[in-house]
Amino acid sequence: MRSTEGGRLRNAAQFSLCINRLFSSGQKHPTQNQLFTYLGNISMILAMVSFKKHIAELEPYLPPSHRTSDRKKKRLYMNENLFGCAPAVISVLKNIGPDEILYYPAGGSAALKEAISSSILVGTDRVVVGSGESEILKQIFHAFLSAGDKVLLCKHSWSYFPHLCKINNAKIVNFSMRMDERHFFFDVEHIIKESKKHVPKLIVLVSPNMPTGNLLARSALEKILRSSKRSLVLLDEAYFGFSENDSRADAELQKLLARHDNLIICRTFSKYYGLASLRIGYALCSRKIAEYLEKSSPLFGIPFPVQLAAIRALKSKAYYHNLRRAVVASRDTFIREVNSTTGYKAYASDANFMLLRAGKDAPALERHLYEGGFIVRNCAPYDLHDFIRITVAPADVMKALLRAIRNFRRPLKSA
Predict the structure, then answer these.
(1) CA atoms lying within 13 Å on the CB side of residue 102
(2) Distance CA 172, CA 103 (A)
(3) How many of the other CB atoms lie within 10 Å of CB of 179?
(4) In whole angstroms, what is the distance from residue 355 CA to residue 389 CA?
(5) CA atoms within 13 A on the CB side of 56
(6) Are β-strands 353-357 and 345-346 bridged in parallel, bridged antiparallel, or unpaired?
(7) How many CB atoms lie within 10 A of CB 294?
(8) In degrees, to the nearest 5, what angle opens at C-alpha 195 toward C-alphas 189 and 199?
């Protein structure tokens, strides 16, 4: 081993010497021999680079995308807030001055932490801010997982979680979501049973779960936390805000975090606040975990103009209260109409999307809607092959979508 490493070091030194000679010789055109030596040493250096096998063999995670020509179609597949962010946020961005761009953000993301703390009554020392929730999640997985650690997560949830497990060479233990005639639900006893059996390093829960849209009750969460004290519990609340129960849940947040040091709650400004392009996410957790995560946070925090936009969004409570009511009304009306007039089944949801079960028709229905100007999400990647997922849009868009589904004229044949 030593002779091999010594040989590599000698070759590297020769490579450096070759480069120095090549560019200090004053020759406009290096000789053929010089070029061969130069290229040979490049090959040697590349051979020295070693990749982690489990990452090298991994397929890159790519979010759903469509062609440029699809821009005129209705984007009902990415769960974006199609009702728009608060006008006050746009005003803030339009009035960004040179000083907000010229200088590094003072105190990292301190301004936004203060605003989050004031909004949900959680101390700033329990808040970690990052560039989008996906980066916060990546930071958490990297900070806590070692090769071979187990992660318990839902089989019917965001495919980015298995990807993060694979990046960190962790082992995945799945649990399934249950369903009845009206909605999906968490089988809490089964989750606890799997937790006790496998003692995972990390338990991932999504509420409302994506793509099934169902909430995990706070009482159920606490039951899991009490039964899994040897595991870190990550609660992804990316779709928080679209349920009438969310305000009451926020009021208990400080007590919840104080009772459970093994809980991390992750949220984003992409969904409810409609700021997906600005990439803002945050975690709420114990002081000890927050201090630990800060050691791997971005050096200067997130851009100050982005912080200003997020702060204004937090202050625009009346606008987002009305937005929630509009989303809920549009969503619930659409679900009711689908179930009563189309022959298909739409499931209850507490998010800004819902699942529609079309049986074997699902792929053909997706194509039909695409041709009619609507892009929806096929749920086969979530192991829900009979389903499509639809983002909630304003009432006029949902009415047009409903007409397109009715025009398909193929009632559900299998369920």
Answers:
(1) 3
(2) 43
(3) 16
(4) 5
(5) 5
(6) antiparallel
(7) 14
(8) 165
Size (the chain), residues: 415
* Neighbouring residues of 216: CB distance < 8 A, sequence distance ≥ 6: 186, 205, 207, 209, 235
Integer-rounded Cα Rg, in Å, for the chain is 26
Which residue, chain included where needed, has tokens 């009715």?
A: 406
List pLDDT tens digits, range 41-62.
666 555 567 777 777 777 776 6
Query: Which residues make Cβ contacts (< 8 Å) with residue 108, sequence separation at least 6?
Result: 129, 297, 298, 299, 300, 301
**Does the CA dihedral 156-158-164-167 come out positive or negative?**
positive
pLDDT over threshold 70, residue 127: yes
Q: What percentage of the chain has pLDDT greater than the value 70? A: 83
Nearest to 284 by CA among 304, 300, 260: 260
Res 12 pLDDT > 50: yes
CB 299 within 8 A of CB 361: no
The answer to whether the CB of 405 falls within 8 A of the CB of 340 is no
Q: How far is CA 326 from CA 209, 352, 378, in A?
A: 21, 11, 25
pTM of the complete model:
0.84
